[in-house]
Amino acid sequence: MSTASLQNYRVLETPKEIKSFRKVACHPMPYPYAVFFCHYDEDSSETRVFKVSMIGENTKDKVDAAAVCHMDSASAALLNLTDKQGKSPMCHFFSAGDLIWVQ
């Protein structure tokens, strides 16, 4: 597995939505062996997944990243992450090691 270096990236094109009604996100946990914390949304229409193609500012490495947008950011877990108090979508990239399963 390769990892992207820490640098600024520029989006190359309009992100492409990966349409799916079923999504499970998994994040690695700090154990000496592979353990993941996985979760899913009950209302899958509230979460959208995008493939984002980018290029590194310094190395010119091209990477594809998964971005997840929570269309309803009013849930308690997301309230502190947006300045619109649950009224606007909240999007974030998945880090190296994170997984998203879509069907």
Summarize the structure.
The protein is mainly beta and 103 residues long.
Care to describe what's here?
The chain is 0% helix and 42% strand. It has 103 residues and is mostly beta strands. Strands 1, 2, 5, 6 and 7 form a five-stranded antiparallel beta sheet that branches. The chain has a three-stranded antiparallel beta sheet with strand order 4-3-8, with no helix packed on it. The model has no long low-confidence stretch (mean pLDDT 84). It is globular, with a radius of gyration of 15 Å. It contains no helices and eight strands. The two termini are 23 Å apart. The protein has strands at residues 9-11, 16-18, 23-28, 36-39, 47-56, 62-70, 90-93, 99-102. It has one domain (9-102).
Structural class: mainly beta
Distance separating the two termini: 23 Å
Unreliable runs: none
Q: Globular, elongated, flat, extended or rod-shaped: what is the shape?
A: globular
* Major sheet: 5 strands, antiparallel
Percent helix, as a range, is under 10%
Pfam family, one: BURP
InterPro entries: BURP (IPR044816), BURP_dom (IPR004873)
Domain BURP: 1-103
Protein name: BURP domain protein USPL1
What features would you highlight for this structure?
103 residues, mainly beta, five-stranded antiparallel sheet, 8 strands, 0% helix, single chain, three-stranded antiparallel sheet
